[in-house]
Amino acid sequence: MSEVTNIQTTSEKNKSEWIKSTCAYCGVGCGIEAKVNASGKLEIRGDESHPANLGRLCSKGLALGDTVTSEGRLLAPSIDGKATTWNTALNHVASSLNDIIQEHGPDAVAFYVSGQLLTEDYYVVNKLMKGFIGSANIDTNSRLCMASAVAGHKRAFGEDCVPGTYEDLDIADLVVLVGSNLAWCHPVLYQRLKAAKEQRGTKVIVIDPRKTSTCEIADLHLPLTPGSDIALFNGLLAELAKHEQLNQSYIANHTTGLDEALTQAQRFNTVTAVAAATGLKLADIETFYRLFRQHSRTVTMFSQGVNQSTSGTDNANSILNCHIATGRIGLPGSTPFSITGQPNAMGGREVGGLANTLAAHLEFGNDAHSALVSEFWQTDRLATQQGLKAIDMFDAIESGKIKALWVMATNPAVSLPDSDRIAKILEKCPLVIVSDCVSTSETLDYAHVKLPAQGWSEKSGTVTNSERMISRQRRLLPTPGEGKPDWWIVSEVGKRMGFHQAFDYPTEAHIFQEYVAMTTIGNQEGDATKRKLNLSALRGLSVEEYNTFSPTRWPIVNEDSDSGRLFTKGNFSTPDGKARFIAVDHKAPVSPITPQYSIILNSGRIRDQWHTMTRTGLSAALNAHTIEPIIEINPFDATDRGIKEGQLVNVISRVGEQVFKAHVTNRVIPGQSFAPIHWNKMNCSGGKVTAVIPAHTDPISGQPEFKATPVSLKPLMMQSAASLVTKTRLTQSQLQTFGAVYWVLQAIEGGYLYHFQFKENCASVPSTLMTLAPSEHATLIHGNAEHGRRVVVYQDKTPLFAFSAFPLKQENEQPDISQLLTSQFDSQDIHAFLSGSLAARSPIVCACKQVTLDTIEVSLIDGSAESVQDVSNQTLAGTGCGSCTAEIGNIVDRVCARKLTQRKAG
């Protein structure tokens, strides 16, 4: 077995030197600089030279150092729960896959991979599956993110290309955000847009069912009915035609299909018809259409609210149609812009990580493309047809067609819709292989083979962001245990399956070199297979040049200009070089509202968390803002159902039910609700939103619907609650013995804080929690059974854990038990805790600068602050990524209103 060669290790670098790398989170692709300080902690700062962020980072990026830990890591390979050697594990995987292929054919094997993989990882696993196993059954969690945008781009442009760049936000006169909470999901771009608005007066329109933090900078918010995007944009296309503001010259020279698209759009040729379908006010629709007509420099950014829909591809094309009709494609400050969710979703698209593409923008169904790939990879085993997309793949496992599944760097048991069904499918699959860096996840529970992979800060390779910028992720720290790069794991399996020559890569740089070469095949001027994706300028890149590679946007050879824009001259990737209008129509929702399921559930990210919290869940700073899974409910709906703020709510759909904590707010309109995607059974007894979302998908892209699930909401009546702090995580079996209706885990400084709720009164709770105590222990107790009890448990004079049990109605009066761990159970804090005098710490508002609510309120009450800017100047709140500024604004309004009332009363 060959040893992995790391291009860059910490031993090759002075630990005090800042090393450039790329953030692990969203598709903005921010550059970071990192170094190991004297205490061994990884320090993080923004890379001021990186064009994606120019030094800015969001709260998650700033906290990356907090998430780098050996705790909870998968440290060694195992088979059926027993630790083994790499050689044994790799041989077992290779022989098992070969046996299944020999008996059932290549389509009995499937890979499910991730936008967290680096491009080199993606390239190798795609090559093994499609080129040598001979099946295209490889799909990615990016199917849940941007597959509809991909399909829309291909239909309109002939190739999956995002035409614009981030600079377009700096120079646009109008920016339309559709289905994008930019402030929380892509905070660095939000700050860029906010700065442009302040400096240039850029108009901003937010199209979103919820009033999100992004609306803070909006000139107009359009809270449309979920699933009605096509009605709104078909209405815009009809409006442009009515006012004779179609770009007739551009249409004639560079497009086809307008008549069919306009015919379809005529259904919404009046503002009244649009209002009826979208639920929007007539005046607001007219304002949007007028602003779009008046500003030729318009950028329309769209994200998951558009893509995650059973009509996601048509949604995308309805937006693209309006830009094509006005010639606003790839021009400075004037373009449609799909922004991706994951750090390397774009890189995965480039190298064929999706089941319906080959690699390097070469496609199935094109004999010339297949011939190019077969010759380049020197294989006669190339898959001849598209593979199964994510949901179809798991359906095939359920039916027995797929016998082996290899999951890499993702958690489908949590992230896929109808997740309880997915868990049952994984349980029945004959062979489940999981490569991951963590030791526990819902998916790992079903793995027969576990392979330890490197995590962020240990991996080395490239990623491509939403504007096609290729950046390096560099190795910053050594890998705990026996973790290996994903590309190495896959390559070693490929060799053992009999394809040694095709997967004999000395380093990740050699994989990148091969990928670069692949982008050039059949890609010369005049070739019928010519594509925009072309990295020919990087051919011959040495290992050293790869190691020092600076961020570069493709296409590096660009017939338009050196700006990195695409399609500026109307030269599209279709056979005739013309963009396609796609006729689309607004359809009724797949899951209709009924009297039983009368509330629409929307889902998405919150400010400081990422995906299923395997990384961000480790950071105390990121867990201080929103500590548990909430469901946002409009006050009207809450009153109608007897639901109060902070009460537990049972959310029930046609496929499942889960428990959330109610947050009553006007951010959602009546008839709608919102819940975050992050919680699951590893960190909460409820709050797993995918368990209530059915697996309905877009028929073209295969992307699931996550934004419009009909549900019913029922309040749960609890009597008591408890908080428990401990230095180590509790096991699932321990948690189950407590009999709590609800529990949630929160990472805090020094350990963990658990929150519980019970149906029983608080008298019975302490005895339940005391089952955690070892046989030889001592306790300090204060309080009584009726009004609550506070307990500290010792062993050998060392505090082990502490808890507080109390009537639920006293929840807001409890001491901040987490301070016991912060002070390492200081005797003074223990005394204050037991006596009930331990002051509650103020909640964090600004995660970047760790500014509390108390600090902000003091600046407004006792200081001279009277505005958000004043607060920022005095406290630094909001001066990081800025995603908290809307919340700060609400605090300013509340405190200033209170001060005004007091002055009037005085």
Enumerate the strands of the largest sheet in spatial order, edge to edge or round the barrel.
5-4-18-17-16-6-7
The helix tally amounts to: 30
* Strand content bin: 15-25%
Shape estimate: globular
Largest sheet: 7 strands, mixed
**Could you tell me the mean pLDDT?**
93
Number of beta strands: 36
Overall SS class: alpha/beta
The unreliable regions are: 8-14, 558-562
Portion of residues in helices?
Answer: 25-40%
Q: What is the straight-line distance between the termini?
A: 82 Å
Please state the CA-atom Rg, rounded to the nearest Å.
27 Å
Keywords: 4Fe-4S, Iron, Iron-sulfur, Metal-binding, Molybdenum, Nitrate assimilation, Oxidoreductase
Pfam family, one: Molybdop_Fe4S4
Domain 4Fe-4S Mo/W bis-MGD-type: 16-72
Family: Belongs to the prokaryotic molybdopterin-containing oxidoreductase family. NasA/NapA/NarB subfamily.
General description of the model:
The protein is of the alpha/beta class. It has 30 helices and 36 strands. Helix 8 runs antiparallel to helix 11 and helix 8 packs across helix 12. The longest helix is centred in the last third of the chain and has 21 residues. The relative contact order is 0.12. About 1% of the residues have low confidence.
